Amino acid sequence: MTQLTFARAINSGLRKSLDNDPKVVLMGEDIGTLGGVFRVTDGLQKDFGKHRVIDTPLAESGIVGTAVGLAYRGYRPVVEIQFDGFVYSAFDQVVSQLAKMHYRTRGAVKMPITIRIPYGGGIGSPEHHSESPEAYFTHTAGLRVITPASPQDAHTMIQQAISCDDPVIFFEPKRRYHDKGEVDESLDPNAAPPMGQARVVADGRDVTLVAYGPLVKTARDAATAAADEGVSVEVIDLRSLAPVDFATVEASVRKTGRLVITHEAGQSGGLGAEVAASITERCFYHLEAAPVRITGFDVPYPYSKVEMHHLPNLDRILDGVDRALGRPNSLSGLEG
Amino acid sequence: MVTDDAGQGGTAAGRDNKTGHQGGAGHSMVQLITPAGERVSHPEYDPWVRDVSDEQLCSLYEDLVVIRRIDKEATALQRQGELGLWPPLLGQEASQVGSVRALRDDDFIFPSYRENGVAYCRGVDLADILRVWRGAASGGWDPYAVNMAIPQIVIGAQTLHATGYAMGIQNDGADSAAIVYFGDGATSKGDVNEAMVFAASYQVPLVFFCQNNHWAISEPVRLQSHTHLAERGTGFGMPSMRVDGNDVLAVMAATRVALDRARRGGGPTFIEAVTYRMGPHTTADDPTRYRDANELEDWAAKDPIGRVRALLDRKGLFTEEFESSVRNKADSVASELRSGCVGMPDPEPLDVFKHVYSTPNSWLDRQQDHYSRYLASFGDPAGATTEEGAR
């Protein structure tokens, strides 16, 4: 076991994938000489060469579109989009080309492409640098969408994504890049929990709290705080956003009877809505209260001086837990 | 021979700014067969088609005629309700035949949706050419069986795929090349411009083959560009050629030049094949609403098939026997096309779920399971798929 930051854990996973498969190539703006703006690809071009770690022109559609062509040729490209808000320039290539090529060719052409996107807020950036665009991609058939919440998961899930024959959108919670954790670099990704599987990261009996990516840490902190008040919160890290491992969430809700979902993205049409609806369908008679969503607001990502109001924090999540439990909360007295 | 637009017969698109002259004197147009069927010499391009024998010229003619016949038959099939849509290539036969016939089998083709003549020459099964347009699949054929990607509907998106594929060729150290087809309208798209940036930066073995057919649905090429489209390639640092797209030999020569450059590590080339879409954009539109009949007449005089026929006639090759053999070939292809179309089995209901992912997906598996139970509840699964349902 080694202590690694989130960013180094991904770097180490990328290195192993480059080592293991000569068809793996990395592509993106500034990922070579500079090592990426977050240094996630630091040192990889030096060790693997310019044809394996490719500095590209500044053109997101170009990066994803050429990766599609490389996959056509049998490569396994790993693409970096520098920031969440820049992926929109590549939207057609992601949702109409990459996602559908396997379907369109009736399975003849595989698209084993991983798109790495640093996402989420909380780092005081200007606009376009703090977005949570996951719902656009979870809504698109043909894509897998995953997001790790710990250095160990970051290390193994990036390798699993690269070896997956389907396109994978790999969202990296950028405000966790510098968090450290124990990483077993010798862990065989095939022996690790599959990337599509959710994980119970804190056991509890009163409320199920579902989170992913940057908010898993916040959710765990909220569970610890709730325990001080005698409330037992079970925290689930979804890990996979498409498909969501509903079986794990369902098993938890059948036990607790209450569901709170939290994410940074805006509420309407977000992943929280999908989790709430699907879990309601699956275990309506086990629910003691309506599912609660604690999310970002339906606003453009706000400027950094007020972003803390937009981002779900420990207290907002605890308020949501109170709502699920029917305890006094900020909305007490409101009907519906 | 080198001509300007006027030399090609005074095109409506070549007179002045009002009627659509695209400026830029940098690229004169390469022509080896005049509209009257006269073989004219060109010191630079002649050597690239010197090996084309009389027999091969006859074979090129046959391809042109067969492709026109395919187009006509498919248009008829659409009118008869057998196809949902068809994008005619009438008038563009020489651009497609001349370019695809310059390729090796291991070169990879990325088409738009109008390259049905290219697909025919590449050996794609006739029914597979129609499969997409009949609505029986999103893609008609296995790209690796013929080294040709399936039709691309989103304008210009395939230029990036071709560039990436060519990056792969380059990485593999192979001496094959890729070619990408797109139209004049596509040159306005971001993806095409990004593709040219990437291709030129990495010097990949790729031919950008732009069929300037003068119309992007109802929008004339002058709305896309105030220069000859070949100038676009030059702007990205790519050697560029402007070629008479209705001249099968000139197109073949230009494509061979570009492919040779690609194989030798010389990077990408941009070819503007100046041609004309004689029909509608697709069977869904009406060109009489946006096009002047005189323009059509001008271009009819430069027909790609008529001029090869005239050349063969001059050479004494256009015999009755040859003419009838070509006609028979076209008849049999058309008949095979029609039977392949009407005899195509409909996909099965649960086919909608196939190939979305290459590995299991729990969401989709559940939906498929639920829908198959629903179908089974009728006893006769086919009965549940009629428009009215089975209730």
Series of H and E elements of chain A: EHEHEHEHHEHEHEEEEHEEHEHEHH
Helical content of chain A stands at 25-40%
Q: Which structural class is indicated by helix and strand composition of chain A?
A: alpha/beta
**Rg of chain A (CA only):** 20 Å
Strand content of chain B: 5-15%
Q: Overall pLDDT of chain B, averaged? A: 92
Into which percent range does the helicity of residues of chain B fall?
A: 40-55%
- Per DSSP, the total helix count of chain B is 13
Give the topology string of chain B: H per helix, E per strand: EEHHEHHHHEHEEEHEHEHHHH
Description:
- The complex is a heterodimer of chains A (336) and B (391).
- Chain A has 336 residues and is of the alpha/beta class.
- In chain A, 35% of the residues lie in helices and 20% in strands.
- In chain A, helix 1 runs parallel beside helix 7, helix 3 packs parallel to helix 4 and helix 8 crosses helix 12.
- The mean pLDDT of chain A is 97.
- In chain B, helix 6 packs parallel to helix 7.
- The N terminus of chain B is likely disordered.
- Chain B has 13 helices and 9 strands.
- In chain B, 41% of the residues lie in helices and 9% in strands.
- Chain B is an alpha/beta fold.
- The interface between A and B is large, with 47 and 42 residues.
Q: What are the SSEs and their pairings?
A:
The complex is a heterodimer of chains A (336) and B (391).
Chain A: E1 2-5, H1 6-20, E2 24-28, H2 44-48, E3 53-55, H3 60-72, E4 76-80, H4 91-98, H5 101-104, E5 114-119, H6 134-138, E6 144-146, H7 151-163, E7 168-173, E8 180-183, E9 199-202, E10 207-211, H8 215-228, E11 233-237, E12 240-242, H9 246-256, E13 259-266, H10 271-283, E14 292-296, H11 307-310, H12 314-325
Chain B: E1 2-3, E2 29-30, H1 54-79, H2 93-100, E3 108-110, H3 116-122, H4 126-134, H5 143-146, H6 157-172, E4 178-183, H7 190-202, E5 206-212, E6 215-216, E7 219-220, H8 230-235, E8 240-244, H9 248-263, E9 269-274, H10 293-300, H11 304-314, H12 320-342, H13 362-376
Parallel strand pairs in B: 2-8, 3-4, 4-5, 5-9, 8-9
Antiparallel strand pairs in B: 1-2, 6-7
